[in-house]
Amino acid sequence: MDIMEIIKQRRSVRTFDGKGITPEEQQKLYEYVQQIKNPYDIPVHFMLVDARSEGLFSPVIEGEQFYIIAKVPGGPHSEEAFGYSFEQLVLYACSIGLGTTWMAGTLDRKIFEKVADLQEGEMMYCVTPVGHAAAAMSETEQKMRAGIGADERKPAAELFFDKDFATPLAVEEEKLKTALEAVRLGPSAVNYQPWRIVRDGKAFHFYETYNKALHERSEWDVQKIDMGIALCHFIGLTGGTCSLSDPGLACPEDTQYIATVTV
Ligand SMILES: Cc1cc2nc3c(=O)[nH]c(=O)nc-3n(C[C@H](O)[C@H](O)[C@H](O)COP(=O)(O)O)c2cc1C
User: How much is the pTM?
Assistant: First the structure.
């Protein structure tokens, strides 16, 4: 599959056709998740669950028959690892014609966590419905997309920088341009797009510009999941290597270092 084409095609799907997914599609998802890895080497465990028999639903989703639930050990980099691994599944689902929606907020966590058999020390940050998109979006979905501005993304000049946070990045090389565009197009919680990148030669330092309200809402950081998605897209297109090599740059307010990808 051409990853960039899939990244461009993907959108959150909140209205499904009500028909579920075939046993062949279930098998493909099952096989795909077996080989999913992330640079943090933190295992993410996926489950495909029948929505009706387990009583799973979301107030913003219609016509879904299945959910994918995932859990991961908590601790340092747990969110980034989860984001990285889960996004691989989201992109794979899209490549075989299945719609998904990352969901961290619009679900009754207690019900999903019970189905996931969540143990002490495990985290179930997000889930997604999975299925075929309906021909038309529900009114709820249309309103949600408009409210969040889901079709919009920040311009590259606000996201990518050269050596410090003051100089917008100009990239010549086609492969790197595409990889940065892949980061820019990624999904994020409330479409806040927290990713910032500062380039220094072959090193691309990833930073999170976090939203205080979201931060204060929970003990874990949903925007670090967005950062895992950004790393997944960038590494998927560059084949770069991920490390923790904080260059100690002066950061804007509410911005923190996450990881470095060396290309
Ligand atoms: C970590 C994360 C959590 C999200 N949580 C929710 C959610 O709880 N409910 C929902 O409807 N969408 C959720 N979304 C989807 C975003 O709103 C969506 O990705 C964004 O608006 C961009 O739209 P698009 O995915 O169609 O490109 C989440 C996305 C991410 C990455």
Answer: 0.98
